[in-house]
Design brief:
The protein is α/β, with parallel strands linked by helices. The chain contains ten helices and eleven strands. The strands form three sheets. It has a seven-stranded parallel β-sheet with strand order 3-2-1-4-5-6-9, sandwiched between helices. It has a two-stranded parallel sheet with strand order 7-11. Helix 4 links the parallel strand 5 and strand 6. This is NAD(P)H-binding protein.
Length: about 260
């Protein structure tokens, strides 16, 4: 099969590309930056998108935009796909886009609805929050003497697990919206923050706090979770242990303790 991966140089797109190529598929990687093994194109302007989509059987749409142009990206892609004969579009979304009132989530939901109404063959996969996002959320706070964390839980998932699922979908038939894909554990934010702090070699007090607002009420109610879909295999602790600085920080911690 000939498969185009948008965002193929990003944190999710890279493992998708690696797995597709390992499976023997012919893969094009869409990127705004010129480079080896990439097809130049820009979803913001439409430049190069027609050429990138031409002749492909499947488009795995991993490119995203946090600043309100998510649906614009999809519209540009769909227009090119129509001219190209209607390849299967595989789109990765987020668990809870229809339950958590955040601007980025609303844009994801609007894009889902646009793809469903496009008339093209499509598959939509919602996933829970990535490990890297959760780590980033708490890494900054870990620099403070006291780390406040919201009284919510998360279900972080590894991008490699999600990539494996997207590859299966890309090689299958269009399926509309498929069941959610979640991480292997649901953990309180305090537990996740503690893991990040320990991985950094620091000692910090973790303080759960209540956060006002409609979005956090949705989080508190578990609107972003998929408890019936503990699909991922790589835990948050395993992810942290694999980070390049983890071993160095643990060594520093042992040295400072005189061991």
């Amino acid at each position: 099969m000939r498969i185009l991966v948008t965002g193929g140089t990003g944190q999710l797109g890279r493992p998708v590309v690696e797995r597709l190529r390992a499976a023997g598929e012919e893969v094009r990687v869409l990127s705004r930056q010129a480079g080896p093994d990439v097809v130049p194109g820009d979803l913001r302007t439409g430049r190069g998108i027609d050429s990138a989509v031409a002749g492909v059987d499947v488009v795995v749409h991993c490119a995203t935009d946090f600043f309100g142009r998510e649906t614009d990206f999809a519209r540009t892609l769909v227009e090119a796909a129509r001219w190209a004969g209607g390849p299967h579009l595989v789109y990765v979304s987020i668990v809870g886009v229809d339950r958590v009132p955040l601007g980025y989530y609303r844009a994801k939901l609007e894009t889902e609805e646009f793809l469903a109404a496009s008339g093209l063959p499509y598959t939509i996969q919602r996933a829970t929050q990535f490990h890297a996002l959760v780590r980033t959320l708490f890494a900054g706070a870990a620099r403070l003497p006291v780390v406040p964390v919201p009284r919510v839980s998360f279900q972080p998932v590894d991008v490699r697990d999600v990539a494996g699922r997207l590859v299966d979908l890309a090689l299958g038939d269009p399926a509309g919206r498929v069941p959610d894909f979640g991480g292997p554990e649901i953990l309180a934010a305090a537990e996740l923050a503690q893991a990040v702090v320990e991985a950094s070699g620091r000692r910090r007090r973790i303080v759960p706090v209540s956060v006002p607002g409609e979005a956090f009420r949705a989080y508190t109610g578990g609107g972003h979770l998929a408890p019936d879909h503990l699909d991922g295999k790589i835990t948050f602790a395993q992810y942290l242990a694999e980070q390049p600085d983890a071993g160095v920080l643990r060594c520093r911690k042992r040295h400072s303790a005189g061991t």
